[in-house]
Amino acid sequence: MRLVIADDHALFRDSLRSLLTARGLNVVGEASNGREAVEMARELLPDVVLMDLSMPEMDGLAATRLISAELPAVKVVMLTASNEDADLFEAIKSGAEGYLLKDLESGRFFALLEGVARGEPALTPLLARKLLDEFANPKLSPNRDQDPDALTTREMEVLDWMVQGETSNRSLARKLGVSENTIKFHVRNILDKLHLHNRAQVVSYALRHGLVQGQSEA
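Given the sequence above, the corresponding structure tokens read:
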């Protein structure tokens, strides 16, 4: 995995780079602000940008919006000290693939980072629950007629399970009795039809727009 670290604290960047390289990951660039992060993403095309939230010149949210819009293959994971709900919600809306706090235990951090490589959102259970609670608020759900494209029955089943927290290819394949490659195909169709970049956005979109009607049965 090729990564760019974007953080305005040099000591934190040094420590994180050492931690990542010790695990065999390739840190291809370091940015001290959001503008540099965008430029490095364009030039280096990393797999993942680990993005701080508060940085000079351009903050992490603005940088994330630019990268997500211009470089959908580059995944952005927020790595921040902010546990404010508003920051979490805005980061996912901006296109972030995940939201991790800097006090996260290293083993959990690497497990979630590995999941990003498989297309899974990097969210701890607590933050995932906050996200689901926020976007499940009926006040945020517009008319379902605004959905851009109709999803197939199978895609709706996949979406339903994703909203329930089954976001990995393996768990979705097990629930639906199909192969992981089939799941990847369905998820890519869902992303394309809803014009979204990642699974975290899919879950929040589904809840905001009332796409999921009930719970699937095991």
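The two ends are 34 Å apart (CA to CA). Try to locate this feature in the token string yourself.
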